[in-house]
Specification:
The chain is of the alpha/beta class. The protein has 10 helices and 9 strands.
Length: about 250
């Protein structure tokens, strides 16, 4: 098995405290593994939805957690689950290799908060300042959807086997959109596209976007000369600037 299992009970307590977990909550545990965290959650809340992809681990989970009628185990890839029972808290040590896609999956879900252990380098991208090396599409979209707090380091020795990367506890709290967007789909595509050319000036980067995604003619592409921020570099735009740019294109 290539996974790293969190085995330190003191960290379980921290996750539960940061999530403000109570006996009326339903918690989602993504990548339940051997069930150490799942078992801890089952004693603290109304229901646990435990998702695990590895069929060998699912067998172990079913055996280890059979005493807990409030745990429901789902075998499969969380990113492919279109329908799950409702949950209001996410408390999890998800596989680090799905971090980006998992955050995007959470964009579309209804929950009160998510407390996750993530690779520190990845967490830095979630909260990266504008213009920094870590700043990218993930920073912009996370800012739009969530209040993000990087809370505590989790030393490698608290996992078995110990990972070779640094880990941190991160809390995501969904909020009303941070700024107004006329067309979210356009905004989403624009942010992804422009950051593939992060060092280019907006006027040049956006021409590629317009050709590829909106199939505009050369005459229409000339309209980019009237767009805001056209002489700034992509990496210099704040999240709100991307919103303003997307709204200008919507018009």
């Amino acid at each position: 098995l290539s996974q790293h299992f969190l085995i330190e009970p003191s960290i379980f307590h921290m996750l539960v405290d940061y999530a403000a977990l109570t006996h009326v909550d339903t918690a989602l545990d993504i990548g339940a593994g051997l069930g150490f965290l799942t078992r801890f959650l089952a004693k603290k809340c109304k229901m646990v939805l435990a998702v695990e992809l590895d069929s060998r681990l699912v067998k172990i989970l079913r055996e280890n957690l059979r005493e807990f009628p409030n745990v429901t185990i789902f075998e499969g890839d969380i990113l492919r689950f279109d329908v799950l029972p409702p949950f209001n808290k996410v408390i999890s040590v998800p596989p680090y290799n799905i971090s980006s896609k998992l955050i995007e999956w959470l964009f579309d879900r209804d929950f009160a908060n998510a407390v996750l252990i993530l690779q520190k380098e990845f967490a830095d991208r979630l909260v990266a300042p504008v213009g920094s090396d870590s700043y990218g599409w993930l920073s912009v979209l996370s800012y739009y959807h969530f209040e993000v707090d990087v809370l505590d380091d989790v030393p490698s020795f608290m996992f078995y086997p110990p990972p070779k990367v640094n880990s941190v506890i991160v809390r995501l709290r969904p909020r009303s959109p941070a700024f107004f967007i006329q067309n979210y789909r356009l905004f989403y595509k624009l942010v992804h596209s422009l950051f593939s050319q992060r060092n280019k000036k907006v006027r040049n980067a956006i021409k590629q976007f317009l050709k590829r995604h909106l199939a505009l003619s050369k005459d229409n592409i000339k309209l980019t000369e009237s767009l805001p921020f056209r002489d700034r570099r992509v990496r210099e735009l704040a999240p709100e600037d991307f919103g303003e740019l997307a709204n200008a294109l919507s018009n």
